[in-house]
Amino acid sequence: MKKSIFKPFILVGILSISLLSCENKEEELYDDSVQELQDSPTKDAKYINELTQTSFEVAKIQKDGHEYHFIALGDDDEMIVAETLYGEAANNKEESLHSIDQSPFNLFISLTKTSVSIPDRIAKTASTSELQSSGRQIENNAALLEINDPNYTNIDQKSCYDIGATTFMNSYCGGVPVTSTPTDIRFCDNGLWNSLTRSSFYGGDWKELDDTYTRTNVVCGLTRLQFYAWENTASWPFSDWKWVLKYQVDLPNGYWYYYYYTSTNTERQVKRTRPYNTGNFRAYTRFY
Q1: DSSP 171
Q2: Contact criterion met (CB below 8 Å) for 79 and 121
Q3: Would you say the C-alpha torsion 128, 62, 212, 239 has a positive or negative sign?
Q4: Which domain of life is it from (predicted)?
Q5: What are the residues whose beta carbons fall under 8 Å from the beta carbon of 148, sequence distance 6 or more?
Q6: Contact 266/2 with Cβ under 8 angstroms?
Q7: Containing H/E element for 33?
Q8: How far is it, in rounded angstroms, from Cα 168 to Cα 259?
Q9: Which of 112, 133, 108, 102 is nearest to 120 (CA)?
Q10: Residue 191: how many CB atoms within 10 A of its CB?
Q11: Which of 15, 225, 258, 278 allows an S-S link to 221, with CB 3.0 to 4.6 Å?
């Protein structure tokens, strides 16, 4: 959540009523200026398209035909969870085993044995009570944790893996109509697309939300998936709001789930493009 910044005042001696009145007016004017500096995105808003924060994979887990990648962003608690299918799960076009109600911590716990320590960055996404009740040890080693399925089999997919518009809509968009609320904004774009931008915009207003969930069926070629956040790129007391690229990945032919978890409420945007102008994609996007 974007925080308001209040100008500190030092009270020296006894102030007269007139001085207090002037001070109150100054404070009101200051609050108004802060509000103006926090305007919502406009059509001509600028973008920062270069990644300004580091990302690194914390854990890779294969289980029952589902492969998960836990990717830490920056230095705080932001995290990407990517999921794809292999073996018979891919053959049968199974649904994700991951619920959007699960934090990365909850998902990790459900996929691993109690003897497995939790990487520190994943542990940061848990509440204190959840961490204590799990009884798990925290691993501060920065090395990648890999748990591979001994029965892993990679099924060679067709050169153009197309789920189809109807199947995508019914199975991956939850059917029609796709309903949204101010705190849960959904888009089902089950047609074939070359480029697509979706934003946390609902009912004529921008909404400040924290998490994003995407499903993408890449039909031939590569599709670039990008997550943006509306942020002030200047230092206080200055203001320069822009769309800031937080994470991007090039997805090959297939079907991909990407969850972006944060603890900051702001306007959000997801872009999908074709970096080499080949292939198409179908998409589902959810801001919540």
Answers
A1: I
A2: yes
A3: positive
A4: Bacteria
A5: 60, 62
A6: yes
A7: helix 17-37
A8: 18
A9: 108
A10: 13
A11: 278
What is the rounded CA–CA span in Å between residue 80 and residue 22?
A: 49
CA angle 239, 242, 243 (to 5 degrees): 155
**Angle 28-41-271 from CA coordinates, rounded to 5°:** 155
Element at 37 (helix H, strand E): helix 17-37
Cβ proximity of 36 and 30 under 8 Å: no
Beta strand 55-63 pairing with 145-147: parallel
Closest to 108 in 3D by CA, of 143, 55, 145, 151: 145
> Model confidence over 21-55: pLDDT tens digits?
444 444 443 344 444 455 889 999 999 999 989 99
CB 251 within 8 A of CB 201: no
Contact between 230 and 212 under an 8 Å Cβ cutoff? The reply is no
Does 26 or 182 have the greater pLDDT score?
Answer: 182
Residue 2, helix vs strand vs coil? coil
Among candidates 125, 114, 121, which has minimal Cα distance to 139?
Answer: 121
Nearest CA to 37 out of 288, 232, 261 is that of: 232
Q: Measured between alpha carbons, how far is residue 217 from residues 91, 158, 162, 191, 225 in Å?
A: 14, 13, 7, 10, 11
Q: What is the 3-state secondary structure (H, E, C) of 214-275?
A: EEEEEECCCEEEEEEEEEECCCCCCCCEEEEEEEEEEECCEEEEEEEECCCCECEEEEEECC
Q: What angle do CA 226, 230, 231 make, to 5 degrees?
A: 120
Confidence of residue 15 (pLDDT cuts 50, 70, 90): very low
